[in-house]
Amino acid sequence: xxxxxxxxxxxxxxxxxxxxxxxxxxxxxxxxxxxxxxxxxxxxxxxxxxxxxxxxxxxxxxxxxxxxxxxxxxxxxxxxxxxxxxxxxxxxxxxxxxxxxxxxxxxxxxxxxxxxxxxxxxxxxxxxxxxxxxxxxxxxxxxxxxxxxxxxxxxxxxxxxxxxxxxxxxxxxxxxxxxxxxxxxxxxxxxxxxxxxxxxxxxxxxxxxxxxxxxxxxxxxxxxxxxxxxxxxxxxxxxxxxxxxxxxxxxxxxxxxxxxxxxxxxxxxxxxxxxxxxxxxxxx
Length: 284
Hints:
Layout: E1 6-15, E2 24-26, E3 28-32, E4 35-36, E5 42-46, E6 64-67, E7 71-75, E8 82-85, E9 92-97, E10 100-106, H1 109-119, E11 123-128, H2 138-141, E12 156-160, H3 161-173, E13 188-191, E14 201-206, E15 212-221, H4 238-244, E16 248-249, E17 255-266, E18 271-273, E19 277-282
Parallel strand pairs: 12-13
Antiparallel strand pairs: 1-2, 1-13, 1-19, 3-4, 3-18, 5-11, 6-7, 7-8, 9-10, 10-11, 12-17, 14-15, 14-19, 15-17, 16-17
């Protein structure tokens, strides 16, 4: 990309090993076909195999993963740590994510009991089946086939630090406290952009060891999860109310958007790192 209109840098990186539980902030992460390595690799389901999230169980925000070499360690208030081996699963399972039937592997009775005890419902933990092909909506990705694990619909989410700062300015003007970017569950946070520049960028190029190209495909519509305080699991609708005043997105038929969903065009197995330069042109 010659003479880019925008230059930025990767300010923060996050993965969310278990869908709807707390994220893990990293200095670097390997980029795979389905997004950052281990992002949304696991998911909590109910007795029928239907996925559950913070929307109905806000205390999921208090489940905090830690990534180690061979395991993911989960901690939650009042609970002993749960150790999940990254390369170990139990029996196959079929689960439902939105309107899709998805192949997975059950993680066994100990993990099931841990989540059931903490969240107060009979639940199980499953791992995505890597042989299952779950693609993003081609109405948004066009010719690109973008694979996912248990992401809502797209491999990556990008936000700019400036977009959060603008929201916090509006919250402050209304006498409300500032919020952290963790509420919005991005994978990539960029500095050096103007607020919501990420809405208008078609292609991001990252200066990794080999070229990394990430295509913006869809604005991210917002559900009530940003109203949940990730530190306490308490709900306050100030964030949604504030966003409704200025973030209605015509591309989503007037729904609130905050951040952009990305797909990987080039750069599988490359490593994204905090501090890497990002170049882009407007054009979405």
